Amino acid sequence: AKLCVCDLLVAQCDVNCCCDPDCSAADFSLFTTCSIPLVTGDSRLCSQKAAIYSLDVEANPPERIFKLIDQVNPSVFCIHATNYKQAFSFSSPEMPTSENFDQLLEQFGSASFSAEPDSWNMNTDAQNPSDANETYRYEYGVPIQTVDAFLRLPSPVVSSWCSDANPAGFLVNQATKCIRSVSVEKCGNIQAVSMLFYINSSILAVPKSSQMVNITVQSIVVQSLNGMRTLLNGSDVLRLPVILDELCINIVLGVSYHITYTDAGEIIEAAASFVLGAINKEALSIQQSFEISFTQVNTKPVPLSGNPGYVVGLPIRAGFRPQGYPFHIRILFAALVLNTNKYSQLTILQSTSNQDCLAAQGARTPILFGYNMISGCKLRITAAMTCQPLTQTLLDLLKGQNFPEYVASFGNSQAQHVLDWVPITHLHTSEQRIYNTFQSSCQIPVSLEIEVKWTKYGSLVNPQARIVNVTATITTTTLKQLPSGRERTIPITSSVVFTDISSPAEPGYKAWPTINAKLPFDFFFPF
């Protein structure tokens, strides 16, 4: 368990972490892959045990498969026995400071010195067994350590006044506001209103390590006394509080930390954004705001629609699969107008007051899980219209130029997990109605019907909504020529229907609970 690098949550199951000892069989049944399929110790050993994890997706429900094998290192340069654990890694040399300079000078200042440690203790394992194979990493909720203590995120404790004793927890997004006592005469001596107070202490990349990550200044926004805010062009200048014309400027009103981490629980970047303001002599206190957020390296924040199953009322996630994978994730909507949707997301037509299809360019509504929807507009056809441009215009209006290819089966499906994505099936039907409009018959699309089939998946106690099939059906009708000067109006519609295809509970079991039950806020957090 100590070697399981994907085990980040304390006493909770991490999604797709097959080596997490906190996961149960019910949790494994919801997994789609094993993020860490092989767990071993040091790869330089000549022989060691290796744990292999996989999923049996053919089983019902899916099961985790665990095997323990003897792994042999084929290299002739391998370690047969580990009798001195400290020799596995190189310790960074101690940096000279004003406090330790004399000590370092006495130790290394002569013409020669010994590079060996003071003692070669062959019984290190017996003396300190807990640290022998310790793999240090941050876990969920663990305070983020700095060189002097921990990363501070001031917050109100008993009253609304700020307390600087609140540590920021790893992977815990927080936002706080509190009141700070200030005065113009003493503003230069109050540490908590200075930028330096929030960036002068480097963060430890992992707990109990000598590797440090400096906090960089990402942006600085200056707020005037009347509340107007201005973004400064340069953020590399440290702006300290200073008294100017009976005002104290560069007072910290807000700090926003952004932490970048790896899947092994290591912090690699830390940035801070500041809001600076000014106070006059009448000000006795200020309100400060603080927040912290986390992003995993090489990933882009994508809004989830459930964790893991879909939540009623949240958008369906969809995307495209380029050459190979991963997917380009989008939010699924039902029809698209390209010049009104800069994200190329599908949207369903939203009815407007004039009901004119060719004029309805703006109003779009997302497809929300569990919500059956129908909308439409009216198309006025004249004898001067030609078939091909009209057909393409209606197809773009109904289906969109960037209709997605796949839909996420779960609300938290990741782009790299191919089996978590369901392909959209396209169908075409034709109506028997014939409108006398064109001289030769012309087939135009008049409706788009999207059917989303979903099922309750996993444990009977806490089933998760999973999409298993999506069908998009375009219905066309035939038009014939209208007499000159005549016109005709036909309806254009879009609709979305959700169908629950869950099998009924077996006799003797409780019936399925309703899907409206909300999951805990930290269920499988942060994935």
Describe the SSE topology.
Blueprint (H helix, E strand, L loop, with lengths): L24 H4 L9 E2 L7 E10 L6 E10 L28 H8 L15 H4 L27 E2 L5 E2 L10 E8 L14 H4 L3 E2 L7 E2 L1 E9 L5 E3 L10 E3 L2 E15 L5 E13 L5 E12 L19 E5 L7 E5 L15 E2 L14 E2 L7 E10 L4 H12 L7 E3 L12 E15 L2 E20 L6 E18 L5 E14 L27
Parallel strand pairs: 9-13, 12-14, 21-23, 22-24
Antiparallel strand pairs: 1-2, 2-3, 4-5, 6-14, 7-8, 9-10, 11-12, 12-13, 15-16, 15-20, 17-18, 19-24, 20-21, 22-23
Description:
InterPro entries: TCTN1-3, TCTN1-3_dom, TCTN1-3_N. Residues 2-101 form the Tectonic-1-3 N-terminal domain. One of its GO terms (biological process) is cilium assembly. This protein is mainly β. The chain has three domains: 1-87, no CATH class; 142-296, no CATH class; 314-500, no CATH class. It contains five helices and 24 strands. The protein has helices spanning 25-28, 101-108, 124-127, 196-199, 387-398, and strands at 38-39, 47-56, 63-72, 155-156, 162-163, 174-181, 203-204, 212-213, 215-223, 229-231, 242-244, 247-261, 267-279, 285-296, 316-320, 328-332, 348-349, 364-365, 373-382, 406-408, 421-435, 438-457, 464-481, 487-500. It has an eight-stranded mixed sheet with strand order 16-15-20-21-23-22-24-19, covered by helices on one side. Strands 6, 9, 10, 11, 12, 13 and 14 form a seven-stranded mixed sheet that branches. The relative contact order is 0.10. Mean pLDDT is 79; it is low at 116-134, 331-345, 508-519 and 523-527.
